[in-house]
Every structure is written in C-alpha cells, then in structure tokens.
Known about the structure:
By secondary structure, chain A is an alpha/beta fold. Chain A has helices spanning 40-47, 79-85, 96-101, 118-131, 148-165, 176-182, 200-205, 207-213, 216-221; strands at 2-11, 14-24, 29-34, 55-60, 64-67, 136-140, 168-173, 185-190, 193-199.
Amino acid sequence: MISVESLSVRYGAATALDGVSLHVAAGEKVALIGANGAGKSTLLNALSGMVPKASGQVSLSGRFAHVPEGRQLFPDLSVDDNLRLGAFRVRDRDPAWIYELLPELTRMRRQLAGSLSGGQQQMVAIGRGLMARPDVLAIDEMSLGLAPIIVQQLARRLSLLNEQRGLTLLLVEQSARVALSLCDRAYVLETGRIVAQGSSAELLDSPFVVSAYLGGPHEGAS
Amino acid sequence: MSAFLSYLIHGVCVGCGFALIASGIIIIYRVTRVVNLGQGMFAVVAGFTATSLLGAGLPHVVSELMAILVAAAVGLLTGCVAIGKRGTHPQASLIATLGVGVFGYAVEILTWGDQPRSFAGLTGAFELMGVHVSTQYVLILVVTLLVFGALELFFEGTYAGKALTACASNPYAAALQGIGVLRMGLFGFALGGALGGVAGVLLTPLQPISYDSDVLLFVNGFASAILAGLTRPVFALAGGVALGVAESMVAGYSKASYQSSLALLLTLAILVVQATRRQALHTVEE
C-alpha cells in the first residue's frame, strides 16, 4: 500500500527527513512514533504530495487520505459541508454512511465546524478523511489534546473499520502508549531518521522505547 | 415628497452598482483572503470597453457582454499577479492588486485618453408616483437582483461554491482534499472581474467614467462590503443599497460633494467597531 524508500525532505538548509524507508501492507495498522519535530508530519505531507521530496521514492497504491495535525477543518463551513468536501476527488459525496459510523455528528451536521469541541472536531476530521473512500487512512496526532476516553472511542471505531472494511491505518503519534495499543507494528522516528521498528509487542519490550517514549521502565511496566 | 422619492430611486440604483462592486470584493476575499484594491478598475475597464465597442458599431447587449468578458480577463490577470506565486501572503497580494490598479491607469490613459466617456443606456422613461424614472434604472435593478440571486445559489447551494469557500477557509486543508487552491483563487478573481464589469456597464450610462473613477467605485464598494462583514454577497446588496440611498439623500438635501465623504466615514466607523469586536473575541479565545 505504502512504500517509502530512502526518502529525504529538506526545508531550506534544514533536513526534516533523512533517508527514511517505511512499508505498509494492505490491511495493516501501523504507527509512526516520535517526539515533536522528529519529522512525522513531514512524512505524511510528503505522502500527500504537500511537500517536495529532495530524494528517494514514494509509492502509494490505492487512495490515500490524510487527516492532518490540528484537525484543520473548514471552520466557517458546516459539519456537513466539511464532510462533503472530503469527497472532492471521488464521485459519491453523500455523507450518510459517515453519520451511521459516527452518529454523534448527526445532530451537529448544520453547526459550523469551528464551533465544535476538540473531540468533535477530530471526529469531523476523521469523517472528512473517510469521505475520500480511502484504502489507506493516515491520521496525524489523533490523540493530541483529547481526553483518553474520546481517544479510546475513536480508536475502537478505527479498529472496526480496519477489520470490517480492510482499511489500512497509518497513525502518527507522540503518544507511544496510544499508538502501540491500537497498532500491530510501529516505526520510531527521531530527528528525521527511523531509529527503531518492530511489532508493538517487541517495541513495548524494548528498553530504548520504554525509556524514551513510555516515560521510563517503572511506568512502562505498569 | 416627489423629491424624496426621486432621491430614493436614484440611491437604490447607484447602491446596486456599489453592491455589484462589493460582491466582487467579497468573492475574491472569500476565495483568497485578499482584499482586491483593483476592483474599481474592473468596472472602469468594462465601461471604457463598452463605449469603444458601441462606437465601433457593435450592437448593445453584445458590446456590454464583451466588455464584461474583458473585465473578467483583467480580473484573471490581476489574480495571476496577486496570487500566482505560491505562498504569497494575502497582505502582499493586496499591495500587488494596488500595483495592478496603478498600472491600469497607464493602460487606460494610453488606450482611451484622460477624458470622461459614457454611452447611452436604455433610453425611455416612465412616471412613477409623479417621479420621472429612467428605464436604465429598472435595468440596473433587475440585473443586480438576478446576479445576486445567482451568486447566492452558487455559493450557498452548490458543491463548487463550497469548494471555493473552503479555499479561503483553510487553504492547506483544501489542498489536502485535492482542491486546486490556486486555480480556484484565479477563478475567484475572474468572477470578481466579471462582477466589476457588470457594475461598469450598468453605471456608465448614468455617470461618465474616467480612468480615475475606480477610486470612488472602490471606496463605495468596499464600504458596502464591510457593511456586509466581507462574508456573503447578498448582505452586500443590503449594504450597497443602504449606502447608495444615504449618499443620494445627503447629495439631494445638502451638498453633493459630501456624498463620497459619507462612504469613507461609514467605512471608518464600521472598521473601528469591528476592530474592537475582534479584540473582544480574541480576549475570549485566550
């Protein structure tokens, strides 16, 4: 589904990604973990074609939808319009199935997206991403600023879409705990390079990941 | 009473012209977040073009429509200069539109000279409650209502209209959905040019235009657009008509030279009020 080979991206003199390779197969749930400024969002933007690549290869098969960091809704348009605009590239623009999937959105369909709470906005952002009928859905910092209970709800819905519709997921997270509990496999990105990768279980056992991304062995063991 | 009525009718029609200018400003702003200082120029170019085409023997309607197309092309060119380079900040684009406007003066003077020009609109008139009303006024009113009806339907009711709005609402997110933000912005400028052109061909028969008429047209159009909060064209219709009537009354009952000051005063007052309201909003957000 996604194949990235030695990808480098530069912003002027600064190197944001330095020879990153990453592969995601159809139906997988893969996480990309890293701290602020590690280059996670840059990688997604490179996959969406929003930033030019300095070198390397990116190949995507199937439709790719990118739910950006900070939701990035259209604040002065209604929830309904936000959803419909997610289907700009496809023919079917009826959001009825999104309202079935995320019933909370039904009663706010006429509300302006800018007036919603963070959790509601994240739901609209994910719904808008799904409207593109993607084969791969990439979500940037889904859990940032949201209450754990909301994150759990969203994660459950996404897992269901993965199981029932075979939706491939690429989750970009600062929070390794959320990412590793939802995904089967993960890559760890540090200052533009992949520094670790493996199954979620392996990474949860790795002292490096535990100390750097799970807040030390004590908390990690709990 | 009949003096009042005739000022009112004149004000409504001139206000329709302001509203058309305002709608162009609003649409360009809505799609690109650029306040287009060249909006008055579109009307002037269309007015001049129509006088030339009519002078060359082309019939009415054809001449006016071609003049509107020329204005749309000028709008598109203005857009290319203002937003053609990716990542141009809206405020830099605003200055670029001012530059295009000044450049427009040179082209207009070279092409049409520096004397005011005009052409005859619809001839004929009728009596309405003792007031002599020119048929051109009726034309202005009907065309304006049709244009605003179409704009409202397009922006509020169609997918393309929403996609255009999305471009200004969040350009990054719009691009992520696959919307061609630059193309949409250029379309906005072309549409703005056409709307300015409609105003130009409708207003020129009422009042001869010269190369520098754009300033007054812009000031009045911008005042109407600000009255509408720069959001929905249909509010600008109300804003434009209110301003047109107010100016017409001022001109009728006191001095004609006061009328353009009214637009400036009104704009200033609204900008001050809005600035303080924005401030209040920001404080709440923080």
